[in-house]
Amino acid sequence: MSIEINQENINAFLHFGWLPRLDIDPPFPEEWVPSEAKNDNPSSIEGANILREAVSRHVPQGTSVVVPLSGGFDSRAMLAILHEQGRDITAVTLGVPGTYDYEIGRLVAKKMGIRHEAININEIPLTTAELVSYAKKTGDWTNIIETFYSLLIATKNSAPIVSGFLGDFLAGSYSKYSFPAWKDTQVQFCKDNKVSREITLTSPEYDPTTALFIQPKEFALTNYEELVYRTRHTCSLRPTAFETDFNYAVPFRDEEWVSFILNCPAEFRHGQNFYQKILAENWPDFFNLPSKNYKGATINSSDLKKKLLSQKARVRNKISRTWPQISHSLLGVDPMLNYTDFNNQIVCNRNLRDVFIENLSDLEIRNCTPWLDLKTLNKKLNNTKKLSYYEGIMLLTLVNLEINLKASST
């Protein structure tokens, strides 16, 4: 790993949980992005056919394939097309029982008669040596613990892994964010992507906008989308889908699909409206099932049901953040969780806690964050009932930092 260890990079990682970089290529070439949307009246049939062709081009014929299936739309779109093409598919869900990513994926596979495997990541042991090894392979400072979990599917399968990476972004999941000036966009992006909203991990004088040393371009993307494309999707999410040691296929990265969807008018991409229309009209059996996007509702559920489930999720999230020590026992697993509940796992999973204690101790010895009281945090790890929700996020970020520093140092 060739990333320089300095205060600027350490602070940037502590703010974002990944490192914004311009020395690596974005997930698809900038030349594919039109300067303005030119297709005034795209059709859902045309969009579906372009997606079908993209899958055919990027996924080898005559081989078994693996689809990492979450509770959302993008991986399900890949699954629907591969199923339609008569491919030999294994759907794999990754997470913990009770979450949408684990349960909805399993439901979709069962309903559609597709072979399915489940990986409960709470049962997967971690070691610092293994995490450092993965950090070296990715070549980026990322949330390496979650990256390790994501790559479990690839390490357990030799068949091509068909990823839904980039689906939601290209469809317009960030298109609703628009700010009049580039500086305003940078400030809002830094606010939205602060890894620990309630606790500042960076040194007091650090300005995170200095990490976004990017000049805006004349794109059919909003300024906010451009920042997502050139930083978050390049530096945080890309290392998983483009891990060189594994056999990934990423059909959403197809030039024809990128050109088609980004040439759609802004109102078509807003809220992923047109993309969801393509999915619902062309593969209704798959998309009349619940989704994480709508908190367990379907694309075709009433607005009232979607609103009620969304409000229920917000209330639950508020309770879990305010009373983390009791929310898990009272409410069970939060279905919206990505990966796992690290706060609860620090309490219940001795293996994970040992990895945290080891790396937090090493980070304290390294003395590269003198403005943080790591000694007190380490003591709390041995008395986990005193951990707040935000301290759990802080600990995860600091441990990820130390693992990435180890990878850069050796």
Overall description:
This protein is mainly alpha-helical. It is 52% helix and 5% strand. It has 20 helices and five strands. The protein has helices spanning 7-16, 44-58, 74-84, 100-111, 128-138, 144-150, 152-155, 167-171, 182-192, 223-241, 255-262, 266-269, 273-282, 284-287, 303-322, 324-331, 342-348, 350-366, 374-381, 389-409, and strands at 65-68, 89-95, 115-120, 161-162, 248-249. The chain has a three-stranded parallel beta sheet, with helices on one face. Strands 4-5 form a two-stranded parallel sheet. Helix 17 (342-348) packs across helix 18 (350-366). The longest helix has 21 residues, at 389-409. The relative contact order is 0.18.
| Terminus-to-terminus distance | 8 Å
Tell me the Rg in angstroms.
21 Å
| Proportion of residues in β-strands | 5-15%
The overall pLDDT average reads 89
What's the shape?
A: globular
Instruction: Please state how the strands of the largest beta sheet are arranged side by side.
Output: 1-2-3
Question: Uncertain spans, ≥5 residues at pLDDT below 50?
Answer: none
User: How do the SSEs run, as a string of H and E?
Assistant: HHEHEHEHHHEHHHEHHHHHHHHHH
Helical/strand content category: mainly alpha
